[in-house]
Structure formats: C-alpha cells, structure tokens
Design brief:
With 241 residues, the chain is α/β, with parallel strands linked by helices. The chain contains nine helices and ten strands.
Length: 241
C-alpha cells in the first residue's frame, strides 16, 4: 500500500474561478524521496497543506497510511512531520526553548525530548548556540531549527515545503545531507521546490505541476532522458511554458 494516495483531487479558493489543484492523482511509495515541483503558483503548497490537514478540499480522495485525511486526521498526525516554508519559530525564545515547546506538543517524555533535542542540535551543528535567541540566528540556522522541530518525534512521513530556499551554501549542504540520512533510516520525504538542480539530486521520483495540474511524473533521470533534455531544469523550461 502506498503511504500517500491522491485520487482526482480538486481545490478551489473562494473568489477564484480557476482551481488551485485540478484532478490531481498521485501515489507515493513508502521510503521514497518524492519531489513535488513547479513554479510559484503551480499548486505545490496547496497540495502539501491538504496532505497535512491544514486545508480542506472540494473533491477527490486523499489517504495517508490507509487513513482518509478528511475523516481520520487524528490517526495521521502522529505519523507525520511538517517543515513549512515560513519559519514556525518563536523569535524571542532560544532554539532549545522552541524545540521543547514543539516536543511537548508531540507528547514526548521530558528526558527523551532533552536527549533528542541535544542529539539533533549536534547533528545540525547548532548545539553550541542552542541558548541563543532565534532572532539572532541567520536564515540558514533558522531553517535548520525549523527542520529539527519536524523531526523530533521520528515521523514516518516528513513534508518539506521549500526547505532550502534563501539560505547559504553551508546550511543547504547540512540540510540535504541530513535529509538523506533521515530517509535512509526509513522516513518517507515529500519535498516541494522550484530548485530543479537540487531536486534532481535529492529525489527518486518527481511530479511536475503547472496551474494546479500534473503535467509529468516519474524518475527524474528517466524523464530527462525520455524528453532528450540535458537536465531536469532544461526539461521544466520546455514543459512549464
């Protein structure tokens, strides 16, 4: 059974004639790194928000680990981690204080939470500045704390919305390396981005969206070869017109 199954999904926002997502059908295998790609406004973030239970949809079916998103979100929530594009952090609290709040929301026992916070801060090269306020962090450091917050409860499925947008090269490498390690440990990753070179390196399966519709899907290297393109970026320049 796929960990995610989407059938004929439609989402239209009030006041808009054109749907944000139109007749979307996707299946994500467990253990995969799946890229949901396209330009801004393609429908990627709307789709991700629906999968996370943050937005309702107009029609279709959306299932995660065999549970329907529209009726059984309480069973889904413990299984998923969410890393939003915007920083979901309290700027006047330290990184450690922020992570204690998020871990508490997941119901993690105090000692277990403290161990996981210390371990993840070390892995992401933030342990020495754990007691510094988030407002004093660089953009790349904030992105790393944002990601740690989504990993604290060891999710089975991790949603990432543009996790490396607008950050320095060092932070990008730290994040990508640790996402690959997280996936190797069994976590399925669903990743949205408009950075095609990064997606081609990271993802084993991609879906390209335009105007809320699916226009191509498959192994990125195979898609590039089938269309006689030089790269995923070149392919997207051809398809996303």
């Amino acid at each position: 059974m796929p960990i995610i199954e989407i059938k004929h999904l439609y989402k239209t926002y009030t006041g808009n004639d054109r749907p944000a997502v139109a007749d979307l059908c996707l299946s994500v295998a467990e253990g995969e790194i799946f890229g949901l790609l396209g330009a801004n406004g393609a429908g990627k973030t709307t789709t991700l928000s629906i999968l996370c239970g943050l937005r309702r949809y107009n029609a279709g079916e959306v299932n995660i680990a065999g549970h329907a998103v529209n009726t059984d979100m309480e069973a889904i929530k413990p299984l998923i981690g969410v890393v939003p594009q915007d920083f979901a952090l309290y700027p006047e609290l330290t990184a450690e204080e922020n992570l204690k709040i998020f871990g508490g929301l997941y119901g993690l026992e105090r000692k277990l939470l403290a161990d996981r916070i210390g371990n993840l801060l070390s892995i992401f090269s933030l342990y020495d500045c754990r007691q510094r306020r988030i407002s004093q962090y660089s953009g790349g450091m904030k992105r790393r704390v944002n990601l740690i917050a989504g990993l604290l409860h060891h999710p089975r499925l991790l949603f990432l919305d543009e996790p490396t947008v607008g950050i320095d090269v060092k932070s990008r490498h730290v994040i990508i390396d640790n996402l690959l390690k997280t996936n190797a440990e069994g976590c399925t990753l669903v990743y949205t981005s408009h950075l095609m070179e990064e997606a081609e390196t990271l993802c084993r399966h991609v879906a390209l969206m335009q105007d809320g519709r699916l226009i191509a899907e498959g192994d990125p290297k195979q898609l590039v070869a089938d269309k006689n393109a030089t790269s995923l970026d070149d392919l997207c320049m051809t398809l996303l017109k």
